[in-house]
Amino acid sequence: MARALGLAALAALAFAPGASASVIGIDMGTQYMKVASGLDIVVNFESKRKSDNLIAFYRGERKFAAEAANLIRRKPDNVAARLASMIGRNADHPAVQGLADQYLQVLPAFNESAGVLEMELEGASYTPQELTAMLLQFAQAITKDHTGSGVRDAVLTVPAWYTQSERVALLDAADLAKLNVLTLIDTTTAVALQWAIDRVYEEDHYVLFYDMGAGGTEVSVARFYPMSDKGKNVSAFEVMGKGWDETLGGFAFDLRLTDILAEKFNKQVGKGDVRKHPRPMAKLREQSRKVKEILSANVEIPVNVDGLHNDIDFRGHVTRREFAEKTR
């Protein structure tokens, strides 16, 4: 899925007027960012095909991807996450208000004089657009490292639930990054485009595309039909309809696991509620993601977090049955 998204986005603008010879596709997911250049998936500085969609500031330096993720346990108040849920939105938006229940150390605040959301990191304030621009610059940097040449033109994928406000804000971020956006394309539409490129149908054919990401779930139905281009049969398509749930994604499952771990720690300690303390909860939230991935292939997993709260180590285990019951 990740590769199809990137390559389809590129294919959409491969012959766009005014585009440079080098066009990249960027999938700005809620949790990860993927970049494609031509037919290649760009690997980052850690030789990984996807990068944590995080930015951190530590001792005056910007940290991205794995370096930012490594700071979550030690310096969670230096790390900005979930920017895709904030960009182009105000403090009253349900997705922004919901961040307070996700155990994030750094939350946005509304600057009334400027009329925008801001996040404070190492004593400085940044808007979601400014932070997203830095992530786009990181995408350009890893592309140059991977291909040996710079890039100016890009296609960006966006979730189906983005309104005009979010899309304009993303374009503003790209402008700050000096990145020329040829178009924005919905994620499931990008997949449908890739599907059409690889297949030719002799009659109408309907396909349902389903994408559950970290932030939400999108579904679309596309109709593929034959079309003649200079005497050659090719596939064309149209999106017949789409639906989404912005609250149902990987993060929702992570939060259920986070609650399980918090309950177990509270039971271990015997007093107080660790959920009232943002720093240890940030550690448990990060740990829950790893637990979720391991439980997909194992029926149980031991969980150990040193010095979780008040210098108390957390020792426990979680079963797949517990997880399943919590997510019903």
From TrEMBL:
Gene Ontology CC: endoplasmic reticulum chaperone complex
InterPro entries (alphabetical): ATPase_NBD, Hsp_70_fam
One family name in Pfam for this protein: HSP70
GO terms assigned for molecular function: ATP binding; ATP-dependent protein folding chaperone
Keywords: ATP-binding, Chaperone, Nucleotide-binding, Signal
GO BP terms in the entry: endoplasmic reticulum unfolded protein response
Signal peptide feature range: 1-21
Coiled coil: none
Protein name in the entry: Uncharacterized protein
Organism (species): Phaeomonas parva
